[in-house]
Amino acid sequence: EVASLSSGARLLLSGPGIERHARLNVGGVAADFWRRRIEIEAEFPRGVDLLLVCGSSLVGLPRSTHLALEG
Questions:
Q1: Exposure of 11 by Cβ count < 10 A (0-12 exposed, 13-18 middle, 19+ buried)?
Q2: Per-residue pLDDT tens for 4-36?
Q3: How far apart are CA 59 and CA 11, in angstroms?
């Protein structure tokens, strides 16, 4: 569960199923977590699939999604 899906860390997403790129804000997760998630992308197909829940909203980030921190 995350604090927000409308403010917080600004993520740039790309990969299978995403035309060009998409943006996602996630609040309540430390920047170090995102940096580590980005580092382990090189280990694909190993990795971490994420389900982020905030209230009634759900976002799935499969391990095949490339992340970048904006800002």
A1: buried
A2: 999 999 999 999 999 999 999 999 999 999 999
A3: 13
